Amino acid sequence: MEPFKASLAHYRLSLIVPALLDRNLLTATMRLERGAVRRAFHFRDGFLVAESSNEPREHLAQVLSDLNILDVATAAAAFEAARSESVPFGTFLVDRGYVSAAQLLQALSHKAQEAFFDCYTWESGELELVPCELPDGVGISLRLPLGALHRDALARRRDWRGFREAFPNNDATFRVHRHMAVDWRSDAEEEMVVLAEKGATLGELLSSVPMGQLVAARRLVQLYRQGVLSPRTPGNAMIGDAPNLSHLVELARALISQGRYEAAAAVAAQVLETAPCPEASKIYRDAEARMSATLGEEIAAL
After folding, report:
1. How far is the C-alpha of 109 from the C-alpha of 138, rounded, in Å?
2. What percent of the chain has pLDDT over 70?
3. Where are the alpha helices (DSSP H) in 24-145?
4. Are 205 and 195 in contact (CB under 8 A)?
5. From 225's CA, which of 95, 150, 167, 291 has a CA 20 to 30 Å away?
6. In degrees rounded to 5, what are phi and psi of residue 114?
7. How far apart are CA 64 and CA 103, in angstroms?
8. How far apart are CA 196 and CA 175, in angstroms?
9. What is the Cα–Cα distance from 243 to 249, expressed in whole angstroms?
10. Which residue has the higher pLDDT, 138 or 174?
11. Half-sphere exposure of 61 (CA within 13 A, CB side)
């Protein structure tokens, strides 16, 4: 293939990548640049095998810390030692026993995927595709199929758009209804609720999760659907009493009575995507609980 350049203002990554999928066994380096941010993705035989970025938050040492694989001080010291010995950082970590090969691969995969997915949101910047082999000194290689990365990126973009339709304002704050929480699924959810109790804005909550804003958004949506969090509205008004929403609430309640719990949860979620509605939150939680109980019975029967 010939070298290729494009402006992301005219061709988004979501349009360019499908054309690359048509090429058998893509081997090339994709460079993307927007402002001061520069990223490079190296593909071999149709697989993403390495990624690099000049973003400090995407440095491997920072990612290892974010994933709780290494503490910040240890990761920083190991990086300096690897640099002084001119050894690839990942290789140094495994050889010296700081991390296992599986842990390093987990961190590298997370780092590469998050950077790749983020580029799908870019609406400006430059892209350059250059046929070449993997550069020297990369260390441990990845093997992430480009097709799977593309599908995941599109799914994430849909999730993010849906979230933004429900929560468009980063300055919004939340009410906390702890009585709606039977138990927490994770310490991460508890931390998010504590921040909300302290008056954290939506933007601050989204930035509080090291795993990325989309992970934070999914946690927020789950807590919202369960009725644990509800966005504040002007004058303490509660939306959700409109006739069309009331009809959906009744439909969800009827589906519960028919034993169609998954459908009931989907309808309740539809109401909650339109406006805060405590009754829909209760139905959603009830449907979730009944689905779990039904699943438990089926597993016991097996």
Report:
1. 14
2. 89
3. 60-66, 72-84, 89-95, 101-119
4. yes
5. 150
6. -65, -40
7. 9
8. 7
9. 10
10. 174
11. 17
Please report where in the chains the tokens 């958004």 appear, as a residue. Answer: 217
Residue 228 and residue 174: Cα distance in Å, rounded?
10
Return the SS3 of 150: helix
Q: Cα 55 to the chain's mean position, in Å? A: 18
CA distances from 164 to 45, 129, 159, 294 (A): 36, 31, 9, 33
Q: Which amino acid is at 200?
A: A
Residue 67 DSSP one-character state: T
Q: How far apart are CA 217 and CA 171, in angstroms?
A: 15
Band (pLDDT 50/70/90 cuts) for residue 244 is: low
Name the band, by pLDDT with cuts 50, 70 and 90, for residue 240. very low
Q: Which long-range contacts (CB under 8 A, 24 or more apart) does 95-101 make?
A: 98/70, 98/74, 99/64, 99/69, 99/70, 101/140
Packing angle between helix 261-274 and helix 213-225, nearest 10 degrees? 110
Task: State whether the Cα torsion 271-273-277-282 is positive or negative.
Answer: positive
**Sheet strands side by side (includes 37-44):** 4-7, 126-130, 28-34, 37-44, 47-53, 144-145
Residues across the chain? 302
- Tens of pLDDT, residue by residue over 2-24, are 788 999 998 899 999 988 886 66
Q: Where are the beta strands (DSSP E) in 24-182?
A: 28-34, 37-44, 47-53, 126-130, 144-145, 174-176
Most confident of 134-138, 153-157, 205-209, 222-226: 153-157
CA angle 83, 88, 93 (to 5 degrees): 90
The average pLDDT across 230-245 equals 55
- Range with the lowest mean pLDDT among 106-120, 197-211, 230-244? 230-244
Element (H, E) at 6: strand 4-7
